[in-house]
Specification:
Layout: E1 3-7, E2 16-24, E3 28-33, E4 42-54, E5 68-72, E6 79-90, E7 103-111, E8 122-123, E9 134-136, E10 143-153, E11 170-174, E12 183-184, E13 188-193, E14 205-216
Antiparallel strand pairs: 1-2, 2-3, 4-8, 4-14, 5-9, 5-13, 6-11, 6-12, 6-14, 7-10, 7-13
Length: 218
């Protein structure tokens, strides 16, 4: 059936409710109100990226080295939300990798202007403007102070390079509902990094599929 309407009491503007006509058991033909979920957030853009990394033999510092850094510039005037980060890991070569280094998502504050190797993300909608957030694979010029880890992932582990073939891939997702997503205020950021040492000549792959949104709150 086509969209129908229920006329509200006169208010001099002719406002009406948008409904759809349905036939149900008992009452017969009824009008079902359309409900559009809304958020208090006024979104200006959403962005995606898939980063192909390798487990490091030496640990990252987090403040100067990591897989990627997501900054909200101090004068941005917006908020960021990390909508999801999906981790995947697999072997790349036959290698005994008896270490189990964590891959962490950690918040940070920073001073100075972010500088390093910039990553250009994909827009969720091509009509969105350029991302305000600064997304980088290296951290060079700003001074980063780590706050707290809020998600961790363990890459695939192999006990022996000859113990029955390759290990299975591992998967984990940081994908909370909206009210639990990590909010990044101006002057803050998130780093994805490896705080523990891996194995010498480590070749395990770590892929992070990331999405973030940019918004204001009235």
């Amino acid at each position: 059936m086509g969209a129908q309407k229920i006329v509200l009491p006169p208010d001099s503007t002719g406002k009406a409710m948008l409904t759809q006509e349905r036939t149900v058991t008992g009452p017969g033909v009824v009008q079902v109100e359309y409900v559009i979920p809304i958020s208090e957030r006024v979104f200006s853009g959403a962005y995606l990226y898939a980063l192909n990394g390798t487990v490091q033999a030496s640990a990252h510092t987090g403040t100067g080295t990591g897989f990627w850094y997501l900054y909200n510039p101090a004068a941005s005037g917006i908020l960021l939300a990390l909508d999801y980060c999906i981790f995947m890991s697999s072997e790349a070569t036959a290698l005994a990798t008896v270490t189990a280094p964590r891959i962490n998502l950690t918040g940070f504050t920073f001073t100075g202007t972010p500088g390093g190797t910039t990553i250009a993300p994909e827009k969720v909608d091509s009509a969105f403007g350029a991302n305000v957030a600064v997304f980088m694979s290296t951290q060079v010029t700003s001074v980063v102070t780590l706050t707290k880890d809020f998600a961790s992932f363990l890459p695939t582990v192999v006990q022996s390079s000859s113990s029955g073939g390759p290990a299975g891939s591992t998967y984990a997702a940081y994908q909370p509902e909206e009210r639990l997503r990590r909010v990044v205020h101006p002057g803050e950021g998130i780093v994805c990094w490896q705080p523990d040492a891996g194995t010498a000549a480590d070749t395990r792959k770590v892929i992070t599929n990331i999405a973030w949104s940019e918004y204001t709150v009235p």
